[in-house]
Amino acid sequence: MSAPSPRSLILDLLSTLRGESMPVGALVAAGTLFGIPEGGMRVALTRLLAKRLVTRDERGRYRLGAGAAAVHRRVVSWRRLEERLRRWEGGWIGMHRRALARGRAGAAAERALRLLGFARLAPDLALRPDNLKGGIPAVREELVALGLEPGTLVFALSALDPVSEARARGLWDVAALRRGYARSCAQLAAGEARLARLSERAAMLESFRVGGRVIRELVHDPLLPEPLVPADERRAVVAALRRYDRAGRRAWAAFLARHGAPHVALTLPTDGALAVAHL
């Protein structure tokens, strides 16, 4: 397993807290487990502070900052994926890409579109099925929170001609998604049984790798509706991850207690999902 970057590890660990903070000693000790020297962790903390991705209180304890809030909400929502969905009536949500800014702002907008499952139908048009709860207003609000410039055109799209409709429905690699669901379910089931037999350190590292990878996949899942994707297959992954999360909670609990970290609400790290979204 390749080691996470200091930046990724810090954001991952802080993402497991429910509004609580973690002492720098716990972050440094976790870095040591992954072969990251103390200096590397402290430099990463300084840079994350400057970008408002983490914040520090008067006791020198760290928590996620305002700059990471929108992506954090999305990362920790994996448990409630189905609550975010509504029945698809065949309509689409469109977004006018020509208005995207260039440079860092444009890159942030593109990441926001990917996180919400948009795909490009034409050079200036990205879309996704209109199956998210809250409809277009909620999608527009989340896109802006994730980095899209306010005022960018996000609109309802329907009555596509048959050729365009067929192309729109084929924009996502559904076969790859379904293979990923099956692979994740198998790995989580096998991994859950393994964790109880591993040493504390090995169990921590493995839960980071296995659970984190699946969380990252769910964070980037386009949440396609039926009939595009069998919803039961995605639900099976979430159910398997819930079970694995309980085992991961046990794997990390003693380490966190020794280092003065609070009980965690979501113990599985996110394998860089927060960091990737803020590159």
Q: Would you kindly provide a written description of the structure presented here, covering whatever features stand out?
A:
The protein has helices at residues 6-15, 24-33, 38-50, 69-75, 103-115, 135-146, 162-169, 174-195, 200-219, 231-258, 273-277, and strands at residues 22-23, 54-56, 61-64, 92-96, 119-122, 125-129, 154-157. Helices cover 53% and strands 10% of the residues. Strand 2 (54-56) and strand 3 form a beta hairpin. The model is unreliable at 272-279 (pLDDT under 50). The strands form two sheets. The chain has a four-stranded antiparallel sheet, sandwiched between helices. It has a three-stranded antiparallel sheet with strand order 1-3-2. The longest helix has 28 residues, at 231-258. It has 279 residues and is an alpha+beta fold. Among the domains are: 91-157, Alpha-Beta Plaits (2-Layer Sandwich); 173-258, no CATH class. The chain is built from eleven helices and seven strands. Helix 5 packs across helix 6.
Question: Could you name the key traits of this structure?
Answer:
10% strand, 7 strands, three-stranded antiparallel β-sheet, globular, alpha+beta, 53% helix, 279 residues
- The value of Rg in angstroms is 20 Å
The 3D shape can be described as: globular
Structural class: alpha+beta
Quaternary state of this entry equals single chain
Detail the poorly predicted runs.
272-279
What's the helix and strand layout?
Blueprint: H1 6-15, E1 22-23, H2 24-33, H3 38-50, E2 54-56, E3 61-64, H4 69-75, E4 92-96, H5 103-115, E5 119-122, E6 125-129, H6 135-146, E7 154-157, H7 162-169, H8 174-195, H9 200-219, H10 231-258, H11 273-277
Antiparallel strand pairs: 1-3, 2-3, 4-6, 4-7, 5-6
